[in-house]
Amino acid sequence: MSADPRAATDAVTIVLGGTIPLQAYLAVAALLFCTGVWGLINSRNAVRVLMSIELMLNAVNINLMAFSDYLDGQLIRGQVFAIFVITVAAAEAAVGLAILLSLYRNRETVDMERFNLLRW
Amino acid sequence: MTLASTIQQLCFLVLAAVVVVGALGVVLLPNIVYSAFLLGGVFLGVAGLYLLLNASFVAAAQILVYVGAVNVLILFAIMLVNKKETLAVIPGLLLRRLLSGGVCAGLFVLLLRVAFTTHWALPGPLPVGEEATIRIGEHLFSDYLLPFELASVLLLMAMIGAIVLARRDVYSSDVITGEPVDQGLIEKTRTPLLLDPSANAGGQPLLETTP
Fold it and tell me: Closest-CA residue in chain B for A41?
């Protein structure tokens, strides 16, 4: 730790909230998003597809919160956006699972490969 | 390096590991019930990351909405549709998985490159920290008032839509006691139109018709 107090406060100012860089949060969010995309493409179970979508939405939320804290610390607009994203995600989960339930009642399966009524 | 920043880094590493490993488990585990519980762990880890980012209100909202509502909803959906079924073999499944894995890895590298080569406007303004909840309230009732009201309308629409979609046909008589049940508001049963005719070869009706 440096003896100069001004340098110490500068260091605290530069790396807001400890020494975690912004890029670390972005990397975690990118990994989470790519995992979600892979699961979205490859899942056979429709419930798992919905879970993958939730993972992707959470990755986007981590990005929004990181930018809000590091680049927009006074007007925390990223946090407001994250709240709206959470709202829409909750609505999406409810409607998606209701559609899944109705689909299961009609076709008696949750296999994504057999939901091909509108394919061609 | 102070003790506080060391602990913060440690917390970040643990939370990031929980989030990443949990997400991989959600996608890769064969049993979907384990996936659902791991998804709850991922949500909790993300809430911890929010706490590290000075956002206590959003962390609480994340736990309430995601862990408390969405995850429980997913568990209930799993309980309702959990039927053992043998999945038909698809040709070229391994090739498809590898190709999509390559695409996702490429996307990851692209996102990392963007994150590390962009010159972010750091250091930004000081974070408000403890006052974040007050600031969010001010935003929601001044310049974000219209999206706030629209969100409530959206939630109402989603609630009604989910009820209409998931409402089920019921038996006209009680299964256990056999006495008739007054179900005036419940729609008449419909035959499942989209079933394969071969799948229902037994011919027995799935539900009784409501009078």
Answer: B100
